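Please review the protein record below. Tell me whether the encoded fold seems credible here:
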Amino acid sequence: FLARELGCPGVLDLPRGVLKSRLTKDQIGARLRDYTQKYVICSECKRPDTHLSKDGRFTLLICEACGAQRPVTMRRVVAPEKPKAPFEVGEIYRLTIEDVGRRGDGVAKKDGMVVFVTGATQRGVTVNAKVTKVLGNNAYAVAQP
């Protein structure tokens, strides 16, 4: 919780936790107060005699002193969606050759990707190219007549 809230790397090495960043006491204290208010202190009687319990898909904070229950939202990290590659293997694209590589292949760029076109040897020529392979930010294609 602390590492995520403070935006720094951390390691939990029981019985202690190590945060790998320079932080002030105030920064850490504020995050600890937030944590205790959210996950420890009862919102009704303000006592720390609580425990977390999972009820179906909800996590509840249950107070042992007064019996109050309230849902606690657990923060989940959502993986960002991968952007769709601008090239599909087997498709034909119209590309302008910007440069010629060491092997004599034409080099074109489109949507942040570099395309190596076999059979296109002149700079400035626009060709139809059939994509044969896509690897990372590179695509490989063959010039079509």
